[in-house]
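## tool: complex_structure
## caller: assistant
## args:
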Amino acid sequence: MTDRDHIVDRLADYAVGALRGRTKARVERHLAECPACRRELATLQRTGELLNAVSLEQAPPETWDAVRERIGDLRRASAPTRPRFAWGLAMGLAAVLIVALGIFLQRPTPVGEPLLVVAVEADDEMQATIDGHLSTMWAAPLADEAAVGLRLAEWENGG
Amino acid sequence: MRPYAISLFLLSLVFAGPCLADSTPWQAVWGSETATDKITMTGSANVMTVNDGRSLSATAAVTAARGKIRFDYQASKRRWSLIDDGTHLIQLHPDRKTALLLERPTLAVDRTLAERNYLAREEGEETVAGRRARIIEIAPREGGPPVYRLWLDRETRFALKRERHNVEGRLTSGTEYTAVQFGPAIAPEVFAVPQGWVTRQPVDKEAKLSLSQLGARLGFAVRSPKYIPPGYVLLGGYEQEWGRHRLRMAELRYTDGLRVLSIFQRERMGDEGMGRHGARGRGQGRGEGDRGRGGGLGLGPPGREKMTLVDRGTEKALRYFGRSAAVVVVGDLTAEEIVRIAKSVD
Amino acid sequence: MTEERDEVQEIVARARSGDMAAFEELYRSHQAGIFTFIRSQVRHREIAADLTQETFVRAWESLPRLRKPGAFRGWLHRIAANLVRDEVKSGRSRLEVTESTLLGDAETPQQEAPVPESDGPEQRLVDGEMSRHIWAALEDLSEEHRAAVVMHHMEGMSVEEIAQAMGVRPGTIMSRLSRAREALRNRLSRYVEEASDD
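## result:
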């Protein structure tokens, strides 16, 4: 009885081809003797076949035209598309550029050294790590919970 | 007359006990951390924080009792609440009648570590919310601007005003009570989600893992940084999943007693970090306008590896592409320190 | 299989040097797979189309930096997966299953006239209703499991290819496929169980 339970758990693994060596042999031995498990395996295999038969969906026909046009733009353009920033951000940008220059001037970058880029906006990955760090700040000793709470709310509200 | 005076004197001893003990600054500080464990408090405060270069502010009605605390915020027309009940951070949205439960991270409070790395100095007295408050400044022992300035109520040690400065000495958050009352009766429902509200709770629980456990879970070798700023110790490793699409990263979390340093890492994919330019628009006429992607501004020739630094004021985040890992370091440290930490990982 | 790989490599090589006709060939052969993959993660058709467009534009830009031209398909999926991740994180595409999805609405990926996969081992037609149910069942899976199923069963990618594309070990992909198989076997029981004698 225990053996059968064990096997039933591994049937899906067997069906997708994930089993090897002794485990695989054990399952196969059991299958040879157990019609119920053979039926279940067949069901699992049919599931796979069903999925194999689902057809792919075509992208809308106008997609290629859009791709080609944008590639054309890229080939023609010499500069990246215009970034948008508000005046406040521009001020911030000036400030961080000065910081970046400061870092550069202090230490000349040898060839092969990673180049530091100071970003005004965090991309989603970096924003996620900042958000993650924020929640640990809440629990830190002496943390200003009220203020951390303000930032947490901004995060939740998509601010 | 005399017996009256004597009993008054004795009575005042009972209530003024904590003051007469004349605690050291650190003692007073730790006392403030547990001030509302035994007493109840209601009050209102002005709250301000710097986020991404912008200043956020709100007023908050605050309720505290039995180690739990609740903030009812109001900013412009928005109202929302935050409850810390000791196990969860609960965000309440009254307009939607929904609550979001976040697991409250438990950072073991290591007082010895904090006292080893920081000094607590007495800086005088002021009146806050009509009460006498002792000003205590906490600054790194090795020198530098103070991290915290606390105004602690003489009687209860409750922090009536609190200011936080970043490593560069800039004020990054402040909370100041304008009115406060100690001792009122507070119903336990105050710290719970109201009846009938919809509660969302992300399933992930934070479990502390070892480096090898993290590596096994994530399927790549999780590395330790070779450089960590002096005073920081490792709290633990965590597996983090961010966003709906669940980007998985390992987090190594460090603290110096007061500040938290997080080092996230994941496998570097393909051609990442190879001179990609950011701030590009996407799509055509989708009504979203040109939305920057990647958020980087290339300051050098294309094709070279990049590190991206974001300075939020309250903390900085740096992403660095090593040989095989993408590393993101988040903490309140100087840019140089953060770069050094990131590079020492891979 | 190896012939296919060599062919792709050759086309990729031409596309890298700026041959637009070659890139269009790559587009033609990979657009349905990418669109279906993206659509399985992002419900809105328009957004999926937009992300598909973006995937190929980025592929064009980064093609010179593709180290292994033979791994083009996996690499392309990686670009698509990153875009989907950013999109989902931005909150615009919410993946909660609603009742309308379960009952099968217009948003669920399906084709009016299903085309049988000429490469598939089984020449079985999956009709409209079955297709709707299969997609509804896929919605119940986590994004990772769904992605693995789409890439392996519908696009015919090998476990190794998928593992490279998603940045995980092949064992992880196997495990996802296995768990997905169990879950789908139950959800799709009416189609896959034998007529019972009970």
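## assistant note: Residues 78-82, 104-112 of chain A have pLDDT under 50 and may be disordered. The longest helix of chain A spans residues 87-106. Handing back to user.
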